[in-house]
Amino acid sequence: MHLSPPDVGAAEEALVVAAMRSGWVAPTGPDLDAFERELAARVGCGHAVGVSSGTAALHLALLGVGAGPGSVVVVPTLTFVATANAVTYTGAEPVFVDCDPATGNLDVDLLSDLLDDLTRRGRRVAAVVAVDLNGTCADYDRLLPACAAAGVPVVEDSAQALGSTSGGRAAGTFGQFGVFSFNGNKILTTSSGGMLVCDDPALIARARQLSTQAREPVAHYEHREVGFNYRLSNILAALGRAQLRRLDAMIERRRAVRERYAKLFASVPGTRILGDGHPGSNCWLTSLVVEPAAAGWRADELGGHLAAHDIESRPMFKPMHQQPAHLHHHAAVTGAADRLFATSISLPSGSTLVGTTADRVFGAVEEFLTRRR
Ligand SMILES: *Cc1c(COP(=O)(O)O)cnc(C)c1O
Fold this sequence. Notes:
The protein is of the alpha/beta class. It contains 13 helices and 14 strands.
């Protein structure tokens, strides 16, 4: 059993085949237009542009807020590497900030101090990128005022958080730009793809243009600047439309998976589920934090037991300030992300985890707990 496999079937097949038969196989087409409209409506955002990956959407968002050579972008250290890589693509420098151990999301107190410090040192901060880890929204009630006070725009890396909410507001709408990923392991997949959302039509129009090699709207190929080949294909958009219709059902299944883990670990000392107590989460991944002194075992020992049963699990993201590709950048760290990396394990969380497959996975976890009791 994989950690977070694609959940596709007859509904997806029908729309993909229909898109092929319609003749709109070439880059763009009516399914892409419709997918952008439908996703923007679902999220409650004015505009959306479909792109080839979440990483591409992040790159375009950062260009949209003016990140580039000479500027810095604040990024949480506990994230997937794409968040930091997209900053370097623009020529800006990432600066890492540690997390709140309860959720793994950006530590807002630390962020405020860092913004003060960067301003004092005369650095131009182009953006703060907030990540909604495992589908739990960052603490926007405190984060947005802190960034507004510093005059710094927010880009929301909601790659993992499609369908999540916080205080009734949808993930993807908290920053100037929101970014979604439709990679194979995300809650909604187009096999590979992404979406950039924004309320400002001019900013979206510019991102859309940059995503199509910055082609000017004239008959011949005219380019005033260097763009990118980042558009999502019409065929993949058809797959996305079918997935979007099933989004709520897929979230419900992931939530049921998380509740089953919560029940299993409720009476196990030294364990907790990362980000628990945030009901708006789409429950994309369930990660378990294990304090070895209290539990009597380590997260990687559970991982080893699951691997022996052919069940995939994964350590939490290794923090960016520990990654060889990024460790030369400035980092404001408390050790919280390092500790989560050392003590957490992400467990199979997919919406296909039902029936006998689910029984096998939860049975293996129970067996481990019984042996360790
Ligand atoms: C998946 C992910 C991305 C990148 O999305 P791709 O579609 O794989 O390029 C960016 N940020 C976070 C937090 C992610 O989880």
